[in-house]
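Table 4 source record.
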Amino acid sequence: MFVRYAVVAAALCLASPALAQTTASDHVALGDQEYAATNSAAALQHYEAALAVDSTNYEALWKASRSAIDLGEATSDARKRDAYYRQGTQFARRATGVNPGDAEGHFHLARSLGRTALSLGVRDRVKYAKAVREEALTSLKYNAQHAGALHVMGVWNAEIMRLSGVSRFMAKTFLGGQVFGTASWKDAARYMEQAVAVEPNRLIHRVDLAEIYRDMGDKAKARAEAEFVVKAPATEPNDPKYKSQAQQLLASLK
């Protein structure tokens, strides 16, 4: 009798989703639900839970990197921001180690390194700029239409062109940053326009393209992109921030 009840109890445990062990894929799916609901912190928790089950789960790794970077972009606390970017970089490096032949891991590594570089001085930015460009181009090698990698290359060109001429000269001449000589406003606009073409409703592409147009002196195009961002619905975690940036840009163009 005891044996029979034990077998029945075991069968019930196996049949009940509530009692079954949660898999890494289950946690990734839950993380995706939170990401879709623009809840980056909860999404990151689920991706980390997936990695606790399977530390080599590629999807969980690059998505954990994505959410960590989103959280870094959203905070105004410099210490927390830098910690999130470091975490994003670590997840992305692990992702490229697990699956070096896919675009997502390389893109998120480029993204995390690029965000980190924006808070650094010229000497350190040179070091990061080389790695950002390499990872973004590697991502594009595996997916030529990867909007995120196209975006990174647009920002890469724009940020180098925004450096003073003296800073660019020093980087190229004394810091080993010869790759800085390849940057141009033309490529900044070209890459970002391609990102918009692939993902026309992604606000971050539009607001960064607006800033590139502004810095190139094309106020009409800058205004058109910024107005699109202001009017568009917010669908991603940091969209309210991008909409605020667009409003500030419009005010500066008057």
